[in-house]
Amino acid sequence: MAHAAGPVAPAAHGAAATPGANPGKGGTLPGGKTFSSPADRTVVTSPFGARAGAARAQDARDDSRLGIDLRATAPTAHSIDLQSIIVPWDDAVLDVTISWGDGTTDKFTATVGGFAVDHRNTQHTYAAVGSYDVKVTVKDTTNGGEAVNELKFVTSGAEYTPHAPTRLLDTRAGLGAAQAKVAGRGSVALKVAGAAKVPAGVRAVALNVTATNATGAGHVVVQPRSYGFDEGSNLNYVAGQTVANQVIVPVGEDGSVQLINGGWDAVDLIADVTGYFTASAASGYTSLDPVRAVDTREGLGTAKGQVAGYGTFGVDIAGRGGVPKGATAVALNLTATNPRAAGHLTAYPSGQAAPATSSVNFAAGQTVANSVIVPIGPDGKITIRNGSWDRADVVADVVGYYSTDSRSALVSIGGPYRIMDTRKDSWGRKAGPIPARTFLPVRLDGDTTNSDIDGWVLNTTVTNTTGTGFLSVAADPNTWPDYLKGTAVTPQRPVSSSLNWTAGATVPNLVQTSGGKGGMVDFWNQGWQDIDLVFDLLGWYQTV
């Protein structure tokens, strides 16, 4: 069974959707950071004017000075909300200049009398993600004093740098951790910063995490070491299964991430890095409506016919399906189907040797998908390898891409944050499965008709299945007011898939999807039997 439950859930098709978390508007999701520089760091010059006199200067107490207290938060990927509290030593007219650290300034004048202070919030949006020195200068035009305080601010948004798939963790071999299974309810810390040329100061990392050699059922949670264990999950497994899932996870201040075995029995864990995010200019993200780029059953994107055992084929990615030439990496949903034997698929940039990593693991006859982020080779191609000794079909759907021309930056939260679980009552919705051949519209970005969230990063899990089927996740073309007014149109049924299931299976997969203008996402049950759905929020992409 999938890891249990969460606080907020929208309603099924035909019922009212529920309030969203509204993270892009200063919501209270975990992982936010506050920057501060208290008033005692204020540097004061000429604190007393001529009219005050030398005697008054000699009698001045420590608190009889011009003080500036600064605090800042990051409400969106590129913006700062600066709270300034200015305390003058007497009645004063204050000229205030805020230098944002990017060559721009804001100025205002404040008149403060008696024992009052000037307390206000000022917002600013940066053109690029990064670290900025914010300086506030206050000139007391009444008494002649001047004061300066400053803080270092780092945007919450981070941009992506592709990384050739590289194994960082394998508990079977003692790579990145002790050579031993991770005990039930135990965890392992994986040092990411500084490993395999991942830089210090990395904000988040894209990992393909695999559980194998499990002796019982369970789940895996991946999060920063500083983040408390929560109810979210990234990966579900059963005894004897080898299963992988893509994870985008923030890196702790110590440069590590923590992999927690949420099961009661021991399991081996593997993690391959495929890219990382830093608060510096690199590649931003652009969401796309899912586009099928490869289907060996039909000869789409490659030759028709199953891929031979240990065979490879190249896929033209840049310049096709909405992915521009010059894109640095592509976000895919990669599916293996009709395999004749157990094995794995590996996706990697063209022009390189096949890495000793895996993207999707499968058993004979299984249809299984995994989200992957693949660097694009200099010729605009990626390579897909069948790591089984026998033949298999391959399907790949493009869901987005990274490029230096894209400004949408990742805001990652502290760990998997449970948004909904159809097995439990939630706001406005009674517990119950998603009926067959219907969809569940979910409002993620509050009550908006113009969402500033360009893409959502979700971990989806389907459970309590009684047949076969697949899940599709896509942006809803409607807004929340459309549903309230009863004017919402039925979205077009997607042809792409996000994950596939069989009877009795619990199947997870990471999904990156747009929420459209209304910040709404549809979850389509494309099977012929009811299913339960669990999904967790991992982060989002924003241009503002």
Write the layout of secondary structure elements.
Layout: E1 35-37, E2 43-45, H1 53-59, E3 67-73, E4 79-87, E5 92-99, E6 105-112, E7 118-125, E8 131-140, E9 146-154, E10 159-170, E11 187-191, E12 204-212, E13 218-224, E14 235-237, E15 243-250, E16 256-261, E17 268-278, E18 284-295, E19 312-316, E20 329-337, E21 343-349, E22 360-362, E23 368-375, E24 381-386, E25 393-403, E26 409-421, E27 439-443, E28 453-463, E29 469-475, H2 480-485, E30 499-501, E31 507-513, E32 520-525, E33 532-542
Antiparallel strand pairs: 1-3, 2-9, 3-4, 4-7, 5-6, 5-8, 8-9, 10-17, 11-16, 12-15, 12-17, 13-14, 13-16, 18-25, 19-24, 20-23, 20-25, 21-22, 21-24, 26-33, 27-32, 28-31, 28-33, 29-30, 29-32
